[in-house]
From TrEMBL:
GO terms for biological process: DNA-templated DNA replication. One of its GO terms (cellular component) is DNA polymerase III complex. This is DNA polymerase III subunit delta. It comes from the Bacteria.
Length: 316
């Protein structure tokens, strides 16, 4: 499959692959959902050779494990499953034990960590040792959705491949091709929330964010002195939204605020920027903190409603 925006990363990668000395660590940076994972797998196969399909014994992928035995059983049955919040130090240590043996089919081995910015602190420190003294023939492909969350010492040891955002019109084409029955309102909400990520847009469509999008825009435009819109927002979120839906709501709120920044007058910009920053903090905390879903949606709603109150013209 051809991914939009991958031409330049492939050009850089293949130029390095045919060069005199291939760097041992690469950092694939860009928004979640722009295709960094598929790129890493395809690039790894080019590096190690061997079979073009199926699992490769010399490509080791570290990602989130199932949350517990019950979720592991779901994974084994091919069902959706809940994962742990972080890539653990035990996973890194198990990978490092593999590195004491020779590759199975050739002279090269590739370690993919997806996403590397979700490693535990101890896991990051342990990985750093392997990056500093990599075994001969071992290469690392680290996928990062938020590159700033990685240790500076890890970033400094990697060549960075940056994956660009995709234009809204291109994402719209993808949604219409992949999900032709989706209504325009939901499609527009998904494109706004995805902020340049086709994969995120496809995920958001499945979460039914159209109503949330409308309510958030109303909060930013008009405020919510009587708490009615915030009540509707909580109802639209659902009584027990899972973590994916919570994260999607934060990203959608960020997109709504960012769009308002492009459409409003200068005096309102500081308040919008402050709200956007607070939503960014929430988006970083939400994957690892145990937020109460009801309180989280009210926090989002109140941030947006405060903007609407400030933007409403004075009367009298």
């Amino acid at each position: 499959m051809r991914y939009i925006g991958h031409d330049e990363p492939w050009r850089i990668w293949r130029a390095a692959l045919t060069g005199e000395r291939m760097h041992h660590a690469w950092l694939l940076s860009g928004r979640k959902g722009v295709g960094k994972g598929p790129f890493a797998l395809a690039a790894a196969r080019e590096l190690v050779g061997g079979p073009a399909t199926g699992e490769h014994p010399d490509i080791i992928v570290l990602s989130h494990l199932p949350k517990d035995d019950k979720e592991a059983a779901k994974r084994d049955e091919g069902k959706p499953f809940e994962t742990k919040r972080n890539i653990t130090i035990d996973q890194i240590r198990a990978m490092q034990r593999r590195l004491t043996t020779r590759p199975t089919l050739g002279e090269r081995r590739v370690i993919i960590i997806d996403p590397a910015d979700d490693m535990e602190a101890n896991a990051s420190n342990a990985l750093l040792k392997s990056l500093e003294e990599p075994p001969v023939g071992t290469f690392f492909l680290l996928i990062a959705h938020r590159i700033g969350r990685l240790l500076p010492t890890i970033r400094s040891r990697c060549c960075v491949l940056r994956f660009p955002l995709v234009e809204a019109a291109e994402i719209d084409k993808i949604l219409q091709r992949e999900m032709p029955k989706v209504d325009p309102k939901t499609r527009a909400a998904a494109i706004a929330a995805a902020a340049g990520s086709p994969g995120a847009a496809l995920d958001f469509v499945g979460l039914g964010l159209g109503d949330l999008h409308d309510l958030m825009e109303r909060l930013v435009r008009h405020g919510d002195d009587d708490f009615i819109i915030r009540g509707e927002l909580a109802e639209a979120m659902g009584a027990r939204p899972d973590r994916q839906r919570q994260l999607a709501a934060i990203e959608l709120a960020r997109a709504v605020v960012a769009e308002a920044m492009n459409q409003t007058d200068v005096p309102a910009i500081p308040a919008l920027a402050e709200a956007h920053n607070e939503l960014c903090v929430l988006s970083v905390q939400a994957p690892t903190y145990n937020f109460d879903p009801g309180l989280l949606v009210m926090e989002i709603g109140s941030l947006l409603a405060a903007l609407g109150t400030r933007r409403e013209p004075a009367h009298g």
